[in-house]
Amino acid sequence: MVATVYVTQTGTRYHARTDQTCMENARGFMAVDLDTAAAGGFQPCITCGAPALPGVTEGDSQWLRAIDDWHRSKVFDSFMEEVFARRVLANTPGIKVDDVEVQAYVNAGDETYKVDFLIPKAGLVIEVDGYAKDGAPPTPTDLERRNRRDSALQTKGLTVLHFTNAQVQQEPIACREQVAAVLAAKAASVPAPPPAPPTPAVTPPAPVASTPVQSSVPAQHAPQPAPTPPTGAVSPPKPNQTGLWIALAAAVGVLVVVLLVIVAVVLSGSGTTDPAVPSGPSVSGYVLPTNGECPEDFPYKAHENRDGELKVHSPGGQFYDVTTADRCYKDVEVAVADGYVKSQR
User: Which helix or strand (DSSP H or E) is residue 31 part of?
Assistant: First the structure.
């Protein structure tokens, strides 16, 4: 029996029921079967527990839940990073949610760098490059800083991949293939663990023959000879005082080095503050909507439609009122620079 789900006019997810909080702002809905919703590119709603897409594994479901949590927690620095997670990482074989760190910090030399995605098991850093946060293309200074940063990360043994906004939108399969190639190369370079050494066979000592001795002393009062160690037995070694002193000195030296490293880290970080996730129009040029609607001073509605197209709608447009905004922009040029296409209607 094919499950029935519900889709809205402007949403990108299908829902299990219509009386849930996730449907409160819907301007009408339509009942369709699950296969139709999947063919239309809809994703399951996590809030109302909609059924999974046909053929979706538990791993895929974990990715969908994790990306939704990252979105709600505002972990991503840009919308294209979220698109990369959905279109590339969630569909790349061999990567689990627990393998990926989003907006991670990596120490390289005297510097600490913030990276978009880090996959420690593969030694892989992924950066989603687009326009700068203010909408301007990267300057030569920006490119020089990026190259210096990449060199520092590569010196640490990490592989760095860069993907542009256009690659993420138009060539997600090619992006997956590049990530999968790095994973495969890393797996092939890991040497197999050496075999355990064989356990040496222990030969039991040969019994020592004893000759009875005639004595006039009664057996119960006769002196007992001292026990003789069996042939092949090894006496316990005497403790090596020199070796003990060397081991103690080495342990003290290691402890001193660890303490010096901790002090250096504390002193180097005492005057800096971890960079916060940018928010507000002063950095990114957009604000988040309230119930899908934009404020008057940020009127342009940016939205990813069911076909995966990134559109920005202007006030007075044909679809402006029925569009549920993902972002609100003050200037349409900034939205276009972030990867959205201006709606012609």
Answer: strand 29-33
> What sign has the CA pseudo-torsion 93, 97, 99, 104?
positive
pLDDT score recorded for residue 205: 63
The answer to whether position 119 is within a domain reads yes
As averages over each run of 10 residues, the pLDDT of the chain (345 residues) reads 83 84 81 85 80 72 84 85 86 87 89 91 88 63 86 90 86 90 85 62 58 50 56 54 75 83 67 39 72 91 86 88 91 89 86
Please give the tally of structural domains in the chain.
3
Give which of 315, 311, 291 is closest to 303, Cα–Cα.
311
Can you give the pLDDT at residue 236? 55
- Residue found under tokens 């029921």: 17
User: Which CATH number characterizes residue 136's domain?
Assistant: 3.40.960.10
* DSSP, res 32: E
> Is residue 83 domain-resident?
yes
Provide the b/e sequence for 13-33 (b: ≥16 CB within 10 Å). Answer: bbbbeeeeebbeebeebeebe
Q: Minimal CA–CA distance to 101: which of 83, 123, 79, 80?
A: 123
Task: Give the global pTM.
Answer: 0.44
pLDDT at 189: 81
**Whole-number Å distance between alpha carbons of 77 and 103:** 8
Residue 251 included in any domain: no
pLDDT for residue 294? 94
What is the C-alpha R_g of the chain? Answer: 34
pLDDT of residue 162: 92
Looking at the domain assignment, is residue 198 inside a domain?
Answer: no
Count of positions (residues) in the chain: 345
Task: Judge if 46 and 94 occupy the same domain.
Answer: no
Does 102 share its domain with 48? no
Which of 143, 168, 189 terminates a domain? The answer is 189
Supply the range of the domain harboring residue 9: 1-56
